[in-house]
Design a protein that fits this description.
Number of helices: 13
Oligomer: single chain
Order of helices and strands: HEHEHEHEHHHHHHHEHEEHE
CATH topology of the largest domain: Rossmann fold
CATH class of the largest domain: Alpha Beta
Strand content: 5-15%
CATH superfamily of the largest domain: Vaccinia Virus protein VP39
CATH architecture of the largest domain: 3-Layer(aba) Sandwich
Number of strands: 8
Largest sheet: 8 strands, mixed
Number of domains: 2
């Protein structure tokens, strides 16, 4: 099934401005998806290693890869493994890393992938098309586990009520079935601005695909592969993701608050800052929102890599051989 709406990369102009790509540089697009950021990077004259864990995205990107020869290399892997995957291809450092966190437009738009309740489809939500499906989870997990997932990953304030309704309604196999169960549990009225099922779908998707672990590991991997002066651009779509990104960059830039006068400064004697902020966080303006409603909740953060060693890796001693 081909999406009816064209794919529009979120904050594309701001992402490219933040990365400031130059001809003949090497960049990583950690979330290839429909290829929006990769196309913009290729247009800027750089070489791109484009990662995606979704086999559909890789398969559909092969034509673009053929079109650009050795300037585009598709990597069917998680972006958390970018350091290992690049090393396997003879690449130690890159000039830029881009991450567009969460589900892609092409996944949302395809009912057979089960990520969205915009139209009916099997309750799937697996990015890699392997492992436990969303239907498996809602039909086998106990009420307490479902409630914990909805509360922690969907920030659902009435998680226990929704979990109880899900368990009572089993078996649930379709996206619209699950959405209706949640709506009934929460007393949803069609005129309300945001469908409450959104939080439940978000939580289950993040849980199944271990997205927060992937994000944390991916940020550390980007730190390892970026050369001094290289740039990291991250677009997140909800507060849970953005908190992880914000905390990572704050810690790595040495901007964590110092201890009080009664407590030692936790930063003293610690690793040198490995990143520095390039600009303030960017959110979509009116023009962006008009052409791309998905950007409504997006936040872009950009940082520049310093010359310091990655945290957790001891710096090399000068004069030491091999």
């Amino acid at each position: 099934m081909t999406p009816s709406a064209p794919h529009i990369p979120v904050l594309i102009d701001e992402v490219i401005a933040g990365l400031a790509p130059a001809t003949d540089e090497t960049h990583v697009d950690g979330t290839f998806g429909a290829g929006g950021y990769t196309r913009a990077l290729l247009k800027a004259g750089v070489r791109v290693y484009a990662f995606d864990r979704d086999p559909d995205a890789i398969a559909e990107g092969r034509a673009l890869e053929s079109e650009h020869g050795d300037r585009l290399i598709l990597v069917p892997d998680r972006f958390s493994r970018m350091a290992e995957a690049l090393s396997e291809r003879g690449i130690d450092q890159v000039d830029g890393v881009t991450l567009d966190i969460g589900v892609s437009s092409m996944q949302i738009d395809r009912a057979d992938r089960g990520f969205s309740f915009q139209s009916d489809g099997p309750l799937d939500m697996r990015m890699e098309k392997s492992g436990m499906t969303a239907a498996d989870f809602v039909n086998t997990a106990d009420e307490a586990e479902i409630a914990d997932v909805l509360h922690e990953l969907g920030e659902e304030p009435r998680a226990r009520r929704v979990a109880r309704a899900i368990v009572y309604a089993r078996p649930i196999t379709r996206t619209l079935e699950l959405a209706e169960v949640v709506r009934r549990a929460l007393g949803y009225r069609p005129h309300e601005k945001k469908d409450p099922a959104t939080r439940t779908f978000q939580a289950i998707r993040i849980h199944l695909n271990a997205e927060l672990d992937e994000l944390e590991q991916g940020l550390a991997a980007a730190e390892r592969v970026l050369r001094p002066g290289g740039r990291l651009a991250i677009v997140s779509f909800h507060s849970i993701e953005d908190r992880i990104v914000k905390r990572f960059l704050r810690e790595r830039s040495g901007a964590t608050p110092a201890g009080s006068r009664h407590l030692p400064d936790a930063r003293a004697g610690g690793p040198r800052p490995s990143f520095e902020a390039v600009a303030k966080p960017v959110r979509a303006g009116e023009a962006e929102l008009a052409r791309n409603p998905r950007s409504r909740s997006a936040t872009l953060r950009v940082a520049r890599r310093t010359e310091a060693a990655p945290w957790g890796i001891a710096p090399k001693k000068e004069g030491r051989q091999g």
